[in-house]
Amino acid sequence: MLITPSVSRKGGPVEERVPYGEIRAWFLNCYYVYCQDKIAAGRGWAERELEINWAYNEFDNAFQLPIENLMVEALTLILEGGRLPDTEAYHRNRIANILEQNNLEDMMREISEDEAHELRYDLKILGITA
User: Fold this and answer.
1) Is there a domain that residue 15 lies in?
2) Has residue 62 been placed in a domain?
3) Residue 81 lies in a domain
């Protein structure tokens, strides 16, 4: 899978930000490919082996923009569905760090109204925002 990295506005050209829906599609594709490969190879699942972890690791350092990283972390928590308390704290910590360093409202102004609505809803149901 090819992930196009963002280009920062700081001292460079205007970035090509990846929309929330596209990040979700890439993430779900990783999830799908991992499961597909497991089935095709006839391999069983190891204890605590999770396709979501593999998909998440595919995005490690893939994005530079805080809003994109916020989207990845929120998406991961949504897909975990509260079933992985061991990793939930990690992702919530990542989100807290992003929000400490960046104003949420400023980031929301950089994305489309539809994306902002969707991301706000995800952050709300996760209990991150009111």
Assistant:
1) no
2) yes
3) yes
Structure tokens at 7: 């280009």
In a domain, 6, yes or no: no
What pTM did the predictor assign? Answer: 0.85
Which residues, 6+ apart, have CB-to-CB distance to 51 below 8 Å? 31, 34, 35, 38
The number of domains in the chain is 1
Q: What is the pLDDT of residues 81-116, one digit of tens each?
A: 999 898 999 999 999 999 999 999 999 999 999 999
C-alpha to C-alpha distance for 52 and 73, rounded to whole angstroms: 12
DSSP 120: H
pLDDT band at residue 60, thresholds of 50, 70 and 90? confident
**Whole-number Å distance between alpha carbons of 92 and 99:** 10
Number of helices (H), then strands (E), belonging to the chain: the values are 6, 0
Which is nearest to 79 in space by CA: 103, 56, 48? Answer: 56
The DSSP code for 4 is: P
Q: Which residue carries 């998440």 as its tokens?
A: 56
